[in-house]
Predict the 3D structure of the following.
Amino acid sequence: MAIFRLHIPVLDEVKRKGLRTALNDKWVDVVTRVTAGLNPADVRGVLRDDPPGRPNPRLTPHAEGFWLHMKPTYYHRMVDGFYPTFRLGWLSTFFGVFEIVTGIYLMIYYTPSPVVAYENMLNLLSNVPFGQLMRDLHRLAAELMVIVVVLHMLRTFVTGSYKKPRQFTWATGVILLFVTLVLSFSGYLLPWDQLSLWAVTIGASMVEAIPPEIVGRNVNLLVRGAPEFGANGLLRFYLLHVVGLPLAGIVAFGVHYYKVIHHGHSLPPEGEKVGEDTAKRVPMDSRVYFMPEILTRELWYVAGLLAVLFAAAAYLYNAPALEPHANPLITPLHTTAPWYFLWLQGMLKIGDKVIWGLVIPGVLTGLLLLLPYFEVGPSRRYGDRRIGLSLAALFVAAMALLSYMGTPHYAVSTSPDQEAVAELLPQTHPGPLRSAPWDDLAYGSYEAAAWSAAPNATLQDLLHRYDEVLTDVQSAGRADVAGRMVIEDWQTDLKKVTLRVTWTNTADGTAGEFSQSVYLHRDGNYGQGA
Amino acid sequence: MTDAGVQTAPGADAGVPLSRREFLNYLWGASMAVFLAGGGGVTLWFALPRFREGEFGGVFTLPIAELPAPDSQPTDFPDGRFWLVNIGDAGLQDPRQPKDYSLQPGLKAIYKVCVHLGCVYKWVPTNDRFECPCHGSKYLKSGARIDGPARRNLDVFFIEVLDANGNVLSRSEPTMGSQEAAAVTIPAGAAALRIDTGRRVVGAVNSKPGGGI
């Protein structure tokens, strides 16, 4: 008796049918198993767009396999065009997956600790092959994802697709919007630069405003991990960003997509009678099958989008340069929320933080979530929904206005002398002075008004800009405004540049002055390769 | 229609009695719910950070010679997260000071963090006021809010004035008619100022445009 018996069935087949036939049969078998139901001839039929056999073998992978089990086998021709979906839901999913993949790449070089996070970023940007590309891609796709998700919701509203029976699909979509926004926001803290720290500090302070005081204080501690942002807070945001929110998003996406398929893609408003929902009853002649048409098209979308994203990240788009290392003692002038939260920053400038930072955003979110349960008009036709569509347009306009109010132009401008210096030496991004070619900053003391006398074009340009913003400093209360730029040799390969604004106060004839210095190193690389 | 006239909606309670199995299932369900609630509470407790109050600062002692002169620019103490201001005659007569808050001459240690949403505001000498770069709250040297979305005056730290032997000569006391801490004057014989950043006195409510209750 053998200790064990090894039986390789294909050898029996070879013995019986001969090598060639046996291997061919095995190949057919393997392909059919891998595709969950399509043999090589079927696969070629899909790729050639041949008419399917009867019964249609292309339906089997949907029924037998995991990957396509939720994908519908066919779509209605009316929702297959660019209108009415604009492919926005598909795009949201694409960007979500893209973020997970690029995010995993970035995790390889990142440690969530205030001691090394910023250094990790510098290393990624300057030392890791394709590191900068990866960061650009992750950031670009994140911003595009926010845009696409918002447009997807807007489209769903405009075509009335949230109405019965798709109320719950809409509600899960609002959750996904929320997850998308918080994901983007939590990623903000990770580089541990000034932008990160202060954007997230404001966010956490909003949470702290939750009444009653004991709740706000403890929720704030849970978020920050300490009274102030530090190692614990960074770790918590990191875990939220890479584990908590992606998990929540994947679960919510599963429910959302299941509901979409369960009810069928809603037909355009003009595509069916008022009060009817015929999305699930697709006549034979209106069916567009997933295989081959949708499948091949989606593959080509993926290829095309990847090409566009990589080209854009390589040639057109740079993720914003890092700001200086996070400093809990200095809030930079002109600090702003990410653009998709500017509306919130605008609201917070209006008044009380509990009302404008918690109650109103909370009520808006609640209304959005429950919208299909109280807006129950049966018609999805545009003409029957004038009030709803007008309100939506007003809402979008209000968001745009609030976003403007969130920018530094509204209500936070400081004294004109500081604004003038910040024009050349901003505190939130490198700006013209830091990005100027180091060698062109010739030693000397230059008068802004005499910019045309500067020794080279770079200095002339900088001084000219300086001179132009200085006109804002001149006012009834301030006369004889002058600006000066002093460039000194500080130590080997290091220059000290001082910007000084002087004026005379007309009220009492006293002199006023504001100055700020920056140290620029030959290898400073403030443009960070841009 | 066997039950004449009685129509129950589909899914409605059929009116059958509670069986032992159903009862036990409710019991298991309830025990699971209690377990999850307890687990949730433990998770919150677990995640709540451990720290000492006033961890960043502590008690700062400054010799009298280092204090700013009356009506001079505020002095920055980054380690203690406060500005030391000395309110003099010019400060008392500042027309921008809201009338709702009594103002005495003397020293105040003002917490550097904006009471709106936690940014660090800065002193802008040209405008002679503190300005927050995040949402534009503005405060006078006295700590009184005069503009922006903040809804109270700046918080201050508790100050004691000591003589050479370490005896307390005066301290920042709450003022009558306000929960704010008053400025501290320097009596004769004072040698040092002790500022306790573990004891923060919250600013008075201030919500009107231009400042005031």
